[in-house]
Automatic annotation (TrEMBL):
<protein>
    <recommendedName>
        <fullName>Pre-rRNA-processing protein</fullName>
    </recommendedName>
</protein>
<keyword id="KW-0690">Ribosome biogenesis</keyword>
<comment type="similarity">
    <text>Belongs to the IPI1/TEX10 family.</text>
</comment>
<feature type="compositionally biased region" description="Basic residues">
    <location>
        <begin position="1"/>
        <end position="11"/>
    </location>
</feature>
<dbReference type="Pfam" id="PF12333">
    <property type="entry name" value="Ipi1_N"/>
</dbReference>
<dbReference type="InterPro" id="IPR011989">
    <property type="entry name" value="ARM-like"/>
</dbReference>
<dbReference type="InterPro" id="IPR016024">
    <property type="entry name" value="ARM-type_fold"/>
</dbReference>
<feature type="domain" description="Pre-rRNA-processing protein Ipi1 N-terminal">
    <location>
        <begin position="131"/>
        <end position="227"/>
    </location>
</feature>
<dbReference type="InterPro" id="IPR024679">
    <property type="entry name" value="Ipi1_N"/>
</dbReference>
<keyword id="KW-0539">Nucleus</keyword>
<comment type="subunit">
    <text>Component of the RIX1 complex, composed of IPI1, RIX1/IPI2 and IPI3 in a 1:2:2 stoichiometry. The complex interacts (via RIX1) with MDN1 (via its hexameric AAA ATPase ring) and the pre-60S ribosome particles.</text>
</comment>
<keyword id="KW-0698">rRNA processing</keyword>
<comment type="function">
    <text>Component of the RIX1 complex required for processing of ITS2 sequences from 35S pre-rRNA.</text>
</comment>
<feature type="region of interest" description="Disordered">
    <location>
        <begin position="1"/>
        <end position="31"/>
    </location>
</feature>
């Protein structure tokens, strides 16, 4: 084959269409770019919104959701409020007063969902003692209603909240209107010590907790805590924290001449509003609280403590603490 025939054959190849076999992929071009590689990318699930609600708006939104019919929604809203209050945010900087927040939150102590009540307890613990001292009168009716509720779990939650309140603002609680008499009555009703006569005997099976000895011991522990705060004199540490009268002016009862540190300092006089009954009186003096206890609750508590000592275990141990508290209160009188 000559050179001219070979050149003609090679030129002819450029214009011939290749025959493809069935199932065979089409050959790639020489200048083809491979797209099989993968590159890392940042994916934003939620784009930044310049019109996002502020922290105050979110706080108010979650407060409004406390009345939601969905249990999970109430629980999540309480968790948000607890995290916000526990994050060092001052209550003065909140978009609503503490009183309004407690009015929305405290009814949830009667909620049927245990998760909601747990988050409520966490939210209350995030509040400082100075925030709740003036609002105890708003909280106690819900706590007492929960203490006498038919549900045993709700009664347990009420005991936890009452114990926390006694630790943080015990003197404000026992000095508030009805804080001493009505709370003591709830404790005695819970333990079935209210209507015990001198000849009656008490046993753990007669309480509303039936055979739950831990719940009975917890109720007795909170009752002992209430009696300690209301009947015993201030401890040495509390006295050391008080101001020395001689450091200022040579006056007797120097504390009575200072500016009151709590709201409605003269509310116990009942100068305005409806006249209060014996159960709703403010008992700011330890002697007055002891007189009310001796007159209305001493017999029932004595019989209940005597029967509890015979039970043994945690119930008997706490009964011994209750007995010592009452003995100290009688000696200090």
């Amino acid at each position: 084959m000559g050179a001219s025939a070979k050149k003609k054959k090679e030129k002819k190849k450029d214009f011939q269409k290749p025959k493809l076999k069935v199932g065979k992929a089409k050959p790639q071009a020489a200048n083809a770019t491979s797209t099989s590689f993968k590159a890392k990318a940042i994916v934003l699930n939620q784009q930044i919104n310049a019109d996002a609600p502020s922290q105050n708006a979110q706080f108010l939104h979650h407060v409004s959701l406390l009345s939601s019919r969905v249990d999970s929604q109430r629980k999540e809203s309480l968790a948000y409020l607890a995290s916000t209050l526990g994050g060092g945010v001052r209550t003065k900087s909140l978009p609503m007063p503490t009183e309004a927040l407690l009015e929305k939150a405290m009814p949830l102590i009667l909620d049927s969902s245990s998760g909601v009540r747990t988050e409520l307890n966490k939210m209350l613990q995030a509040l400082s003692p100075t925030d709740i001292g003036d609002h105890i009168t708003k909280m106690l009716p819900f706590i007492r209603a929960a203490m006498t509720h038919l549900s045993q779990d709700i009664r347990k939650t009420a005991l936890d909240v009452l114990s926390w309140l006694l630790n943080k603002a015990g003197q404000d609680l026992v000095s508030s209107p009805g804080g001493w008499s009505k709370t003591l009555e709830c404790c005695s009703t819970l333990l079935n010590w209210k209507n015990l006569a001198p000849n009656d005997t008490w046993s753990a099976s007669k309480t509303n907790f039936r055979s739950d000895t831990k719940a009975i011991a917890r109720a007795m522990q909170v009752a002992e805590q209430l009696l300690s705060v209301g009947l015993l004199a201030p401890s040495i540490e509390d006295k050391e924290n008080q101001h020395d009268p001689g450091a200022y002016l040579p006056l007797w009862d120097h504390g009575h001449h200072q500016i009151p540190t709590k709201a409605s300092a003269y509310g116990y006089l009942s100068l305005f509003g409806k006249p209060v009954d014996d159960d709703s009186r403010m008992l700011e003096d330890r002697e007055e609280r002891l007189l009310v206890f001796n007159d209305r609750f001493r017999i029932g508590f004595a019989k209940g403590i005597g029967g509890a000592k015979k039970e043994g275990g945690d119930i008997g141990r706490i009964a011994g603490q209750l007995s010592k508290t009452l003995e100290l209160a009688s000696k200090e009188d």
